[in-house]
Amino acid sequence: MLKSDDIIIIFGSPHRAMKAEKILKQAHLPITLIPAPAGLVEGCALAIRLAENIFQAVLATLAAAGMEPSKAFRQTPTGLQPVEKAA
Amino acid sequence: MADIYLDNAATSFPKAPGVSRAVAEVIDHLGTSPGRGSYRLALQAGRLLFDIRETVADFFGIADASRVVFTSGATEALNLALFGLLQPGDRVITSSMEHNAVLRPLHALQQRGIEVVRVPADASGLVAAHDIRAAATQGTKRTRMVALTHAANVTGTIQPIEELGPWCRAEGILLLVDAAQSAGLLPIDVEAQGIDLLAVPGHKNLLGPAGTGFLYVREGLQPRPLNFGGTGGDSTSPLPPEELPERLESGTVNLPGLAGLRAGLLYLQSRGLQAVRRHKAALLEQVLSGLKRLDGVRIYGPGEAACHAGVVSINLAGRDPAEIGYRLDADFGICVRTGLHCAPEAHRTIGSFPDGTVRISPGLFNTSADIDTLLQALHVLAKG
After folding, report:
1. What is the pTM of this model?
2. Closest chain B residue to A10 measured between Cα atoms?
3. Are the C-beta atoms of B6 and B362 separated by less than 8 Å?
4. Which of B220, B260, B287, B340 is the most exposed place for a label (fewest CB within 10 A)?
5. Could you tell me which residues come within 8 angstroms of residue B239 by beta carbon, excluding any fewer than 6 positions away?
6. Is there a contact between A14 and B35 if contact means CB atoms under 8 Å apart?
7. How many angstroms from the chain centroid is the CA of residue B145?
8. Which domains does chain B have, with CATH numbers?
9. Which residues from B are below 8 Å from A41, CB to CB?
10. Using one digit for the tens of pLDDT, what is the confidence trace for B134-155?
11. What are the structural domains of chain A?
12. Is the pLDDT of residue B234 over 80?
C-alpha cells in the first residue's frame, strides 16, 4: 500500500477526507484515497497517499481551500514517521 | 376514476422524475456503507454521500457542507436540535402554530426543567414578530432559543422568519426553523436569514423519498447526539467524534434514500424555485378564488395565495371534515387530509378544534384541471 518516501495525510473525519480528495483531484494532483494504516486512525479510517514531490503543493492547495490535514507521515525503512506540515 | 392527490403537505406524490431511478441505482449497484470500508465500492459510496451533502448545502446557502446532518426526516432533525442544545434552566420561545414534532419534544423538555413559552398566533395563524421578541426579552431569564415553523402545516401561513433571524442573531438567541412545509417552496438561505438550525424533510416539497431529511447546524454549535454508535473511525474511543457530520450520524446512513433526495433537488433546480412557487401559487389562487364562490365554505388562514405556503384548510358549514374527506375520496377519487394534522394547538388558534379541517395541499404535478375537479366536488358536497 505504501512505498518508501510516500507521504500520507489524515483528517479528522471521513467528510473532510472526501473533501480533501475532491479539492486535490480538481487541482489535478495525483493522490489516492487509501485505508489509514493501523494505529493512525483518528476519527477517520481513510488517508490520502501522495508522492513526496507534490507534498508542498498538496498542503498549499488544501490551505487555499481552508483545509489542513490533522497529521502527515512519511514511509521510511523503519515505518511511518511524522512529518512537519509547514508548506 | 384516477386519484387526484392533494395531500402533498403530508408527503409529495408523485416524486420527481429520476428519484426512484436514483434510489434503485444505489440499491442495485452501490449497496455499500459509506464511511465504513475503504475498498473501491465503499469509497464510491462515500463520494456519493459527500456529493449529496454538497448539493443540499448549495441549495440552502450553507457554506460548509459538514454542517448538514442527515436524519430520517424533519421530526428527527427537530428532536436533535431541541434535545441536543437545550438544558435545564433554559427558556425557549415557540408558537401556537407548531406541529407535534416541536410541541411534543418541548413538552418532554418541560418535564426536565426547560421553560417553554408559547406565543399565540392570530386567527389567520400568523405569529407576530414583535410578540416573539417581547416574549424572548421579558423577565430576567435569558432566552436560549426561538423554535418556529416557517410555514404552518394547517393553514400554510408564512411566518416572519426573515424579520426574526437577524434580531435573534443580534440578541444571541438561537433560531430553530421547522421548514417542513417551506423547504423546496420558499427561498431559504441560512446565512442571509440568520437561521442557526434548520430542520428539513426530504420527502415533502423537496420531492425525495420518505426516510430522508437533515438538520443544518450553524458553525460553533455542538449538539449532543440523539443516537450513539458506530461512526466509521476511531473505534477505540467510547465517545462520539467531535467532528460534524459524523458526530451526529451514528449508524449506517440511508444512502439510497439520499440519492433519491438529490435527484429531487436537482429536478427542483432544473425547474427553478421561482417557477415552482409560481405554479403552486397559481393552483392555490384557483383553489381560494373557487372556494370563495361556494356558499357555506369557511377558509382558514390568510386567504391570499401569496401568504399561504402550499396549504389551504377549509370546512363546510355544519359538516364533519372527516365526512367531507371520505366523500371526496369515495365519490370523486380526491385525496385530502382531514382532522387535526398533528397540530392541535394550531387548530385551537384558528377555531377548528377539536374536529379539525379539510386540508388541501396541491403539489408540483397537480394541474388546473385537478383543481376544477376538486371545486366541482366541493360544490356538490356543499349542497348536501
Report:
1. 0.95
2. B233
3. yes
4. B220
5. none
6. yes
7. 19
8. 4-14+273-382 (3.90.1150.10), 19-270 (3.40.640.10)
9. 233-235
10. 999 997 788 999 999 999 999 9
11. 7-82 (3.30.70.1530)
12. no
